[in-house]
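dumping this here before i forget
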Amino acid sequence: MGHKVKLVSVTNGDIGHWKMAGGPLAKRRAAESKEAAKRMGDESLVLD
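structure:
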């Protein structure tokens, strides 16, 4: 149908995990979002 989808995370996701936090968690979550969007053929944007 020609629709374009962009997954937008309004935070960087650097808190909220039982074991990880900070920069490493933010990088992990950004990578997860990017991979999910890729699998759906969409785009991902993570705001910091």
